[in-house]
Specification:
about 300 residues, little secondary structure, nine-stranded mixed sheet, two-stranded parallel sheet, 4 helices, about 10% strand, repeat, signal
């Protein structure tokens, strides 16, 4: 009997053995570093196209899915996450429209001033149901330049509501229910409070006295019995039509003790719709370039 040589046995069994595969790594970073990002995506689509028919699925070859690319299966039962809040002002900017320092809260039936982003410069809150303005509404918003509350239900404005708004230039309180005016900020250029219920006793003697930049004053369609006192020299437009004004004096617009005084900035004074005969007060307009609009007989 011949002895089988060990070399022959080794040659017979060699085809039956294969080298063990290297430890598999499913890290996208490693794969992309070796083969590139494009090859990675092609490999992913290859697995999806060729290993989902039930015949070629291999347990030892897991599918590699790139992070944050897409979801293979949607879970309809999952509760959606609430929107991330960048700051405390986000709810207001969901309710209103915030755009480059302007906040638009028009016709949304709010009854109070919403919390505003601190960088707000313009607020448009027209045609809502706001009944009161308070000092805390604008306490932390020092950059406001324009406030518009036209068409609300405002009956009361707390003292000091506008005291910290040193940059405020335009304030509209038109078409509300006001009986009196609050203290106004010093840099106002335009003030509009037409179509309210303001009476003369609701305007203090100092209300307009220090407003040296005020150019446009709209107080028409109220219940004023007289022209407000101490109107600033800066005024260009004064609307007082359709009130209850019955008389004016030589010092209402001019200075009775200075015949050379000219009020040259005034472009328009409207007094029509008042129970006053302007023709009886000729000395009241001697300093004006244009006569007030109204009845003279």
């Amino acid at each position: 009997m011949k002895t089988v040589r060990p070399t022959l046995l080794l040659l017979l069994f060699m085809p039956l053995t294969q080298p063990a595969p290297p430890a598999q790594q499913d890290s996208r970073a490693v794969y992309e570093s070796e083969y590139g990002a494009d090859n990675f995506e092609e490999t992913l689509y290859y697995y999806e196209d060729n290993y989902q028919d039930g015949k070629h699925i291999k347990e030892d070859v897991p599918m590699i899915i790139p992070e944050n690319s897409f979801q293979l299966q949607r879970d309809d039962t999952a509760t959606p996450l609430p929107p991330k809040k960048e700051n405390d002002e986000m709810p207001t900017c969901l309710l209103c429209v915030c755009l480059s320092g302007s906040v638009y809260c028009e016709e949304i039936d709010i009854d109070t001033v919403p919390p505003l982003p601190k960088e707000s410069a313009y607020l448009y809150a027209r045609f809502n149901k706001i009944k009161k303005l308070t000092a805390k509404d604008f306490a932390d918003i020092p950059n406001l330049r324009r406030l518009d509350f036209t068409g609300n239900l405002i009956e009361e404005i707390e003292d000091g509501t506008f005291s910290k708004l040193s940059l405020l230039e335009e304030l509209s309180l038109a078409e509300n229910q006001l009986l009196k005016l609050p203290a106004l900020p010093p840099k106002l250029i335009l003030f509009n409070a037409k179509h309210n219920k303001i009476k003369s006793r609701g305007i203090k003697a100092s209300t307009f006295k220090k407003l040296n930049k005020l150019s446009f004053l709209y107080l028409d369609h109220n219940a004023l019995e007289s022209v407000p006192p101490n109107l600033p020299e800066s005024l260009r437009i004064i609307h007082l039509q359709f009130n209850n004004i019955t008389s004016i004096t030589d010092d209402t617009f001019c200075k009775s003790n200075d015949t050379r005084y000219i009020r040259d900035r005034v472009e328009e004074i409207r007094l029509e719709g008042n129970p006053i005969d302007l023709g009886k007060h000729p000395n009241s307009f001697i300093c004006l370039k244009r006569l007030p609009i109204g009845s003279y007989f």
